Amino acid sequence: MKVLITGGLGYIGQVLQEELKKAGIEYEILDNDIYNLHKDIPSEKRLDLLDKDSIEDSVKNCDVVVNLAAIVGDPACLVDTRYAIEVNCVGTRNLVELTNKYNKRIIHASTCSVYGAEKENKKLIESSTPFPIDFYGQTKYQQERIVRDLIENRENYCIFRLGTAYGLSPRMRYDLVINTFAAKAANGEKLSVFGGTQYRPFVHIRDISRAIIYAIEHNLSGIYNLANENITIKDLAFLIKDLTDVTIEIIDEIEDPRNYIADNTKLMNSGFMFEWSIKKGVKDILESDTVKNYKDAKYSDLDLMKRVKENGN
Ligand SMILES: NC(=O)c1ccc[n+]([C@@H]2O[C@H](COP(=O)([O-])OP(=O)(O)OC[C@H]3O[C@@H](n4cnc5c(N)ncnc54)[C@H](O)[C@@H]3O)[C@@H](O)[C@H]2O)c1
How far is the C-alpha of 88 from the C-alpha of 100, rounded, in Å? Predict the structure, then answer.
């Protein structure tokens, strides 16, 4: 069994690498290191989803593709919307065409952002109608449609709609709400909560990686919500206050209207068990080596994308 991880150098990808190693599963990375965080990687190893010919052998030589490569988050996508569409949509199409050609399975990372803003706080299941309200969510929904519509063998795809991820990774991101709040608390800064009544589903990156491995080992196919705790942003701030005694400031204006509660019954019924909680993940972050420098540009996909564009990439 050999797994190809597109975006394998990223925040989730590097933890997936560690979990695959633990499980004794062979893997290969397909990543163009868009943010130039790994200067030691030679140019011939920087494989780009947009260069279909250059990735063909990698797909041919694996059994399962895990598709994590993307421009991630609305702020980073808005730096260059055309490029975000190319990577997220054309890149995924290239990959799906190759998985069809060689009859490979694909496990694709989507997001609960495809659900948009659910006004009545109903629990959203996989067959609920997606209505993404931000640009990133729209590209992620297009990706899903590319995977579902183009795949020739219906058993060959599994789409995970991830909640907002959190937790420590060798390629850390402090631009995700739990990680940001924990870092602010660790540095004695106050937490500013905008609105705060919006519900979000959350999932630890170790559980994401474990679920991907579970899908590989149990041949899961179809769409699954992948998140285990749905809480409001305000409750999240108070949960962190319980652990740190941080000061919280509530601001009426809502900056990010996304609101959705993701139901994970389908995944739980498949037999998968979550191991992580927000509390446990936050405690890890509070004690981490990187948390003091959380504002460094290398921890934010938006800052990294701006740097790429400024350097004319
Ligand atoms: N982090 C989250 O909270 C979250 C939530 C829901 C869904 N997801 C999805 O999970 C996946 C991974 O997210 P992440 O947080 O690890 O992001 P990340 O930005 O840390 O990693 C993305 C990786 O993709 C690579 N990449 C970008 N363009 C590429 C291209 N053209 N060819 C090859 N590689 C390319 C980058 O170099 C990077 O290593 C994404 O598809 C994202 O949409 C993430």
Answer: 18
In the reported structure, the alpha carbon of residue 10 is separated from the centroid of ligand 1 by a whole-number distance in angstroms of 6
Total tally of structural domains belonging to the chain: 1
Task: Tell me, yes or no, whether 191 lies in a domain.
Answer: no
**Is 42 within the bounds of a domain?**
yes
Residue 210 lies in a domain: yes
**Does pLDDT of 6 surpass 80?**
yes
Q: What is the CATH number of the domain that holds 23?
A: 3.40.50.720
DSSP letter string, 44-89: GG---TT-HHHHHHHHHT-SEEEE--S--SHHHHHHSHHHHHIIII
Calculate the alpha carbon distances from 133 to 79, 103, 140, 165, 202 in Å: 17, 34, 11, 19, 19
Nearest to 187 by CA among 300, 299, 298, 292: 292
For the entire predicted model, the pTM comes to 0.97
Pocket lining: 164 vs ligand 1, CB cutoff 6 Å: yes
pLDDT per residue as tens digits for the range 35-90? 999 999 998 899 999 999 999 999 999 999 999 999 999 999 999 999 999 999 99
* Residue bearing the CA closest to ligand 1, atom 39: 10
